[in-house]
Amino acid sequence: MKKIVLSSVLCATLVYGADVLPVEKRTFDQSKFIPDISLVLDASYVDRSVKDDEAAHLELPGIAHGLLGEHSHGDSEHATYNAKNGFNLNYAELVLSSSADPFFTVDGVFHFSENGVEIEELYFTSNALGHGTKVKGGKFNSNFGYLNEQHHHAWDFADMPLVYEAFLGMHGINETGAQIQWTAPTPFYLMAGFEVLQGENEQMFGNESVDIEEFTTIEEDKIEGTSAPSLYIGYIKASHDIDNTTLLGGISYAQGDSMIDHSSDHEAPHVFSGDSKLYGADLVVLHAIDSYKSIKWQTEYLQRELDGTQYNLYGTFTSPHINKKQSGLYSQLIYTHNKNWRMGVRYDAILKNDVTADNIDKPQPDGLDKYTAMVEYHTSEFARFRLQYSRDNSMFNEDGQREKIDTLILQANISIGAHAAHSF
Questions:
Q1: pLDDT digits over 253-273, tens only?
Q2: For residue 257, which of 106, 230, 233, 318 is within the disulfide window of CB 3.0 to 4.6 Å?
């Protein structure tokens, strides 16, 4: 019933609010029937202190594995950005954007890689509802937090912050669903949003049943999933200018069902079924020194709780009740010197990693952190070359020993065509 009511509210907003904005205030332009088209190329050269086959088996204890290198998941192969030592063609990103009519715009982002093609984003956005209200529907990056809605080529570093990738995976919260946002009529920017999403994030959420019939020692043939949509997100964001300094902050909350399927893992196959909650707080401070020079401080804190049953499908079948309370943050500082040069540093840390099985504490190692520095040169607004170094102290091998990983990345990101400006 709750899902029906929420869907009805979104539909009613779209149907009955579609003719609110006067004709003279609409942004529709006939020429916009021709879509803006752009293509973004991202490639890198990687020198990592561990071999590729070793990197694929490293894990962040109690949280995630397969964060580095290529690894299998089910019947498909997954590769993170900068996955291999040597040369990497990370992706080509095709972006199409256009007004459909006076009421909607449509945006599509198509991700081409050596592993295949996927629809990264494809959604419509209303532009005639008025009263500060906007509706979006389709597949899109959630506005949870600050970094999540940004595409990889807009990041200030070649890789995702540790806490983001550990909790949400390489693509973050990228889901099919609906979104409604309201911008308040205040002297400063104040926006509230709510999203109803399918709930398919494989790192933290999920709702599909898992077939475990092949495990002959288990009487059950499947672990039942739940109905979709099953992921709900809400957030509030505010911004204020003080002279040459802009502050942007927000708080976010996500709650959904979890079905995390690792039944096809070669090492310790298991399935987790339960509920998940994710809390987020973000702050960005941008100070403009002059027309080109600026300093930007960006930080986010994430905290999650997973509560449910873990079905261990190896050895003697067990199904303990698992509770995980985990948190982490990243904090980065970026200095833009002029139109060509930028440099920055970032600190990542897992602050809390409490895991219990049947109310018994399962001690996890501490000191899970990472240090990163980068410098980049822009030949123009369409081409960027970045040199990045990181020291990662968070990964452990199959023997439970910490691996201190040094990584050097030379990244090239080049775009052609008409591409919309990135949001602050």
A1: 999 999 999 888 877 888 999
A2: 230
